[in-house]
Every structure is written in C-alpha cells, then in structure tokens.
Amino acid sequence: MNYLLVGVGGVIGSLLRYYLGVFTHSWWAYDFPLGTLIINLIGSFVLGWLTTHIIKMKLLHPSILAGIGTGIIGSFTTFSTFSVETVTLIQHGLWLFALLYVVLSLFGGLLMSWLGYKVGNHAARNLQRKEEHTS
C-alpha cells in the first residue's frame, strides 16, 4: 500500500511543481530561478509542519504520511533542478544571482523547515490541551 500511495503522491507533487513553475514563469521573466526557490521553500515548510503536527498527533495512517511526505513533498521539491539552475547561472556569468540563489535556498529552506516545525508543534500542543480539557 505504501508504494501505491507514494507513487500517487509523486504524481500529484510533480504536477503541482510543474504548474507552479509554469505560473511563476508567466509573470517572472528574469534570470533568477524564482519558481524553484518558491517551490523548495514551500516544501521545506510543509515537510517541517508535517513531521511535527501530523505525526505527533497521529492524525493520519503511516502509509498516508508516506504518500504525502515522500510522494507529494518529495516530488514537489527538487534538489537536482536547484543544482542545474545554479550551474546555469554560473555558466552565464551571473555569479551574484548564483550566490544569492544558493544562500536563499539553503538558509531559506532551513528557516522554512524550522518555522514549519514550530507551527506544527504549536498546533499539536493546542490540540492536546483541547483534548485534555474535554476529557
């Protein structure tokens, strides 16, 4: 069952990445790869939130979590595209954009993961408190 859910999640995540990339390119005509940056930052936040709130609260079956985390988020985010886009910026002599992209991706991804973790922990604590008060 895990394989099926991860596969279906992979299709969903890759389609989301494709459509967000197309949407971003429709209004962003600059050399900086903003679409991939946005995708990876969103994915970092969602995975940070998912691994704290949903898992701690045991709200979903582990197979569904695998489908969401590994399938959807795993195929939505992309390290290989980030790497190729960075090399392309360097090959075109856009060293400042390449450096900015690497720094924003690395530290932005870490920040978004941390924020997702914090939001997930906060939501889990609030849900636990509500359950304690209703018991």
TrEMBL record:
Membrane topology: Multi-pass membrane protein
Activity regulation info: Na(+) is not transported, but it plays an essential structural role and its presence is essential for fluoride channel function.
Cellular compartments annotated: Cell membrane
Binding positions (Na(+)): 74, 77
Catalytic reaction equation(s): fluoride(in) = fluoride(out)
Keywords: Cell membrane, Ion channel, Ion transport, Membrane, Metal-binding, Plasmid, Sodium, Transmembrane, Transmembrane helix, Transport
Molecular function per GO: fluoride channel activity; metal ion binding
Cross-referenced Pfam families: CRCB
Transmembrane segments: 27-50, 62-82, 94-117
GO terms for cellular component: plasma membrane
InterPro entries cross-referenced by the UniProt entry: FluC
Gene Ontology annotations of biological process type: cellular detoxification of fluoride
Main subcellular location: membrane
Superkingdom of this protein's organism: Bacteria
Family: Belongs to the fluoride channel Fluc/FEX (TC 1.A.43) family.
Job description of the protein: Fluoride-specific ion channel. Important for reducing fluoride concentration in the cell, thus reducing its toxicity.
Official protein name in the record: Fluoride-specific ion channel FluC
Species of origin: Priestia megaterium (strain ATCC 12872 / QMB1551) (Bacillus megaterium)
